[in-house]
Design brief:
Length: about 290
């Protein structure tokens, strides 16, 4: 689609109120799903983040990397096993998780952001004791339940003009390394930072009233409504922990959380810088 210069100027002018709204605010992006494995979508996400950074939004990127972990474990002859959607992680596997997330995935994202003109720094939860955790369930091995987030590490980077890129491994009180759920980590980080918005990227359009009807998108709800969606069974399966993370984030201090479709190019900009938005917004209490 070709736009005239006047049309481009109109788009920028329409974005002005939203730029003013988010300038100087913290936005945490949980990055995963198809947007992380599709190269075109990946570049779009990096462009969105750098653009937001350039207009004064303090963006924090929290990422997972399940496919990369599985691929590396398979190459090493280890079979991936899951219990209740969580990867069983023995001592050898947690080292592989750290290699995949804090090494390969994290540094590739930092490199892409840098190529797009961003000033990014890669971290994992071990750095500066950023994310601390304890054993979540003995059956899962080195899978952690988050106990604390040291937000000062992230704030120091934001205050000095950097984009923090955080991989979701955590440190135990005895120096252990834990694998932690990416959505949960993003919710904890966003809560500790009192973020204006947590953006959770998924592979569906948002929360659906009818999971078999893609036109039944719930565009907006509040905290009580989000709880009711879980209790009534409207939200099922893998969407339950995502909606629960929205609730947890808001209760921890995040103003609003949105679950959006990462398969849509520039979905982050559509959500933050347009009136219509995209996905399902869970509203917190206005500050």
């Amino acid at each position: 689609m070709n736009f005239t210069n006047a049309e481009r100027a109109e788009v920028l002018a329409n974005a002005l109120p939203f730029i003013q709204k988010y300038r100087g605010e913290i936005v945490v992006v949980k990055y995963g799903g198809n947007a992380m494995t599709n190269e075109e979508l990946k570049l779009g996400v990096m462009e969105d983040i750098v653009l937001l950074h350039c207009i004064g939004v303090h963006v924090v990127l929290v990422h997972g990397g399940g496919p990369e972990i599985t691929q590396l474990l398979t190459a090493l002859g280890k079979k991936s096993e899951f219990v209740d959607g969580l990867r069983v992680t023995d001592k050898e596997s947690v080292e592989v998780v750290t290699m995949a997330l804090a090494g390969k995935v994290n540094k590739s994202l930092v490199n892409l952001l840098t190529q797009k003109g961003g000033n990014a720094v890669g971290l994992c939860g071990i750095d500066g004791s950023l994310i601390e955790a304890r054993v979540k369930d003995e059956r899962l091995g080195f899978v952690g339940e988050i106990t604390r987030v040291n937000e000062k590490v992230v704030k120091d980077l934001l205050n000095n003009g950097y984009i923090p890129v955080i991989s979701t491994v955590a440190r135990g009180e005895n120096g252990e390394t834990f694998n932690v759920n990416g959505d949960t980590a993003a919710a904890f980080v966003a809560g500790a930072l009192n973020a204006r918005r947590l953006v959770m990227m998924t592979d569906i359009s948002g929360v659906l009233r009818d999971k078999n009807d893609p036109t039944s998108l719930i565009c907006e709800t509040d905290l009580a409504g989000a709880r009711k969606l879980i209790e009534s069974g409207v939200v099922q399966g893998g969407m339950i922990p995502k909606v629960q993370c929205c609730i947890d984030a808001i209760e921890a201090g995040v103003q609003n959380v949105v679950i959006l479709d990462g398969r849509v190019k520039h979905s982050i900009l559509l959500e933050l810088l347009t009136n219509e938005g995209i996905g399902t917004l869970v509203r917190g209490v206005a500050k």
